[in-house]
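hiii, so i know i said id send this last week but things got crazy w the move. better late than never?? heres the sequnce for the chain we talked about at the cafe, plus the structure i predicted for it. fair warning i was half asleep when i ran it
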Amino acid sequence: MIQKAMIFAAGLGTRFKPWTNHHPKALAVVNGKTLLQRNIEYLQQYGINEVVVNVHHFADQVCDAIEKNNGWGSVVHISNERDALLETGGGLWHARDMLQDAPFLTLNVDFLTTLNLHHFIAFHEQQQTIISLAVAERPSSRCFLFNAHNRLCGWKNMVSGEERIAYPDDNLRALSYSCVAAFQPEVFQHIQHRGKFSIVETYLDIASQHPIYGYNHTGDDMVDVGKPESVALAEALFK
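okay and structure toks below
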């Protein structure tokens, strides 16, 4: 059973201005709770009480909130990216020393969902794969492409038509990423990039050689709280 997770919380939050001119997006509030607190408490519901949080934009505010609230009941480790923002892939690699001893999850701090993590983790364990991705049928400008067996085959920008195929197959289906993934610790042996890079690059690199499967949880509540106008929708769904 997975008992550790990483929450990506270092981003600049450029879509969430003006709040992020003076605060990190991780501390944006939905119904009286910050996004960071909500994700930590979400993990707690499934017995995951050890969390790595990466910090960059207004890092001190994030660290102060974690300290003031005693991690909201979880053990919280800080992955310090104050010197350089590394994006999701670089952030994961930077935090490897805190993650490479056991399977773990990753979440984005600005994405809220009611995905049942017990079911998702059981799927990951059943597939015996290095990475599993939570995906759903919902509108998105960028999607992952899966074959009939739910194997990740590529990525597509649904607006520009730009496409990258990692594992060629027919009749590919586009599904949106829910920003939740399960990893085996050996993933770090397969990460080729260094420095600043998106975790999507890692997924596609690995998918060309090793199966990555998508867990379709369409029907669950999901909100990308990436813009201020998303807060009202989040508050309607997450009390």
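btw The CA atoms of residues 55 and 220 lie 29 Å apart. thought thatd interest u
miss u guys!!
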